Amino acid sequence: MLGLALTAVSGAAAVAAGYQSMAPGGQWYGKTFVGAASGTRQIALTYDDGPNDPHTLRLLDVLARHNINATFFVIGSYVLQRPEIVREIVHAGHVVGNHTFTHPLLTLKSQAEIRKQISDCRAALEDAVGRHSNLFRPPFGGRRPAVLRLAGELALKTVMWSVTAYDWNAPPAAVIERKVAQQVRGGDVILLHDGGHKKMGEDRCQTVIATDHLLTRYKTEGYEFVTVPQMMESSAASLLPSSVR
Fold first, then answer.
1. What pLDDT digit, counting tens, does each position of 216-227 carry?
2. For residue 192, what are the domain limits?
3. Which pLDDT does position 26 carry in this prediction?
4. Is 167 in contact with 158 (CB distance < 8 Å)?
5. Active-site entry in 94, 193, 194, 212
6. Is there a catalytic annotation at residue 167?
7. Active-site residue, 103 included
8. How many domains does the chain have?
9. Residue 127 in domain
10. Element (H, E) at 220
């Protein structure tokens, strides 16, 4: 009986550990940023897996029309292919972050490979736009202690998300909007995709349409759209005693 109990406990621990390595809000393996305090009126739109031609540029047009800035986590190999799109992102006032060089699941990689993935993406971004943010998002959200430790050694802050739009399979815009609406509580970092990790040119037209509708809806409802660094700054300020603000 004791052996069965120990096996059950061990199995449950393994399941929990696996969940924490992928769950956006999991904090077992180190602190990550997942959003501001629930109920605030800020929302941060984030886009993964670009730059992507032509949909990143179409998305930039939508964001410009709404006068909103977002945060883009880009893949280094795509940055090398289309550096001019990344320059357009930065020129428009958006934030770019590190999403590794080829988008592997880092939980399955050696420490040397993890460091190279992050460093090579950083180098590609520096060649394209020079100085950029210190933000990092692990592909698929996958992380273990070594991933977060190496990111920290490279002076990067790991950013996850609190709302998943489930747009990676390009569902209709109405489905994307509904998925987001079911989760938004305020203080959210929303995960969307302007590209796809499998190839350049992934169709993201439905995400572009959904973004337009989401911005219209939540601006009307009084939400403020910010970049991740702006949300981080606001969150840090809210924790300070009033005497030092």
1. 999 999 999 999
2. 30-237
3. 86
4. no
5. 193
6. no
7. no
8. 1
9. yes
10. helix 205-220
